[in-house]
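S.,

Sequence below, as promised.
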Amino acid sequence: MPAGWQPGDVVYVGYELTASKGSVTVPPGWTQVVPQFRSASSASSLSGVLRRVMQPGDSSSLTISHSSGRFAAISAAIQSADNTTPEDVTPTTDANSGVAFPSVEIPSITPAQQDALLLDFAAVRNATNGSTTTFTPPAGMTEAAEAATAVPSAFNAAIEMSYAALSSNAPTGVNDATIQASAGTSANPMGSAIAVRSTG
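The prediction came back faster than expected:
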């Protein structure tokens, strides 16, 4: 869980699971706001996003059960988000069909509010055994967090979350995060976007 969260914060957890026919179990009290989906280039690359409006007494840790495989997850606490309807519109996803390394394509989203917060998630299964992944966020966005597994002789998982404050309800346009791999030039990417509704 993100450090320093307070009751009323809206916490998002993005993840990537590298496993053939793998699945992730939604923890009690959490909502799957980005349904699990797979990369167009590999059925072994699965991503999704969970969300919870934090309550007094909630734990400072979170256990996410999943099938066997490499699993990477990141979290961020959003302050001043609408606690009743945190997502301004339905989140969007992109399975990255035909997207070439080192890009991860994150789909456009069209918010209803003019002052929503844009969250972009870039997830990859590194398709070179033992290779690990880091990210450069899309232009104009700030990285909130990234995580990656580093298992020797395995296809590793990685995910990044970035954010930007929006000032209009125009479509955000397609964004591209960039992968840096420790070895190889092949990955199975996917991207998702969320517009978080503000209390204002």
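The CA atoms of residues 15 and 180 lie 18 Å apart.

Coffee later?
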